[in-house]
Write a structure and sequence with these properties.
- It contains five helices and nine strands.
- The chain is α+β, with helices and mostly antiparallel strands.
- Strand 1 and strand 2 form a beta hairpin.
- Helix 1 crosses helix 2.
- The termini are far apart.
- 30% of the residues are buried.
Amino acid sequence: MKVWTLETERLYLRQWQASDLARFAEMNADAEVMKYFPKRLSPTVSNAIADKCQQLIADKGWGFWAVSLKQDSENADRFIGMVGLNAVHAQMPFAPNVEIAWRLHKDYWGQGYATEAARTSLMFAFETLKLDEVVAFTAVINKHSQLIMQRIGMIDTRANFYHPMLDAKHSLAKHVLYKITRVQWQNHHLFLDDDY
């Protein structure tokens, strides 16, 4: 199985390495990073998630990639988070489908890295995997993540739903669902190209 590594102007989206785990655990234990998740994660749980991501990429060639900087010798291959694609959990009301998602270390927020990596992930989804559509979802109150969804051309379906793994009364239970089709992506992609 070919394991795909994606490259942007500033980033690599690559297979996970053992050296990523401590930084990933730091992210997952951080209150700001995990603000829109039900709870912060222990290092054991964080490592298990990284292992699962690594295995899925080994099995399928793609998934939630580790993201690293490539900008200079000091920062070469510095892990900053994860971005990529994954099969939607079967309990979700819009399954089967493929989702795009991101989670970055807070030291790297506000620099456009999530948008840059997500755009490349969408290109891979439509040009390489030949998917018909990709979805994204987050808590209604997570406006920042929704802005990234909009920047990469995704459209709010207005089909809000309650996350099946959370109690309906939980503050994060109500979610938005964004979607982009291949045709919508092509049109958005052409629009971006026209801007250069």
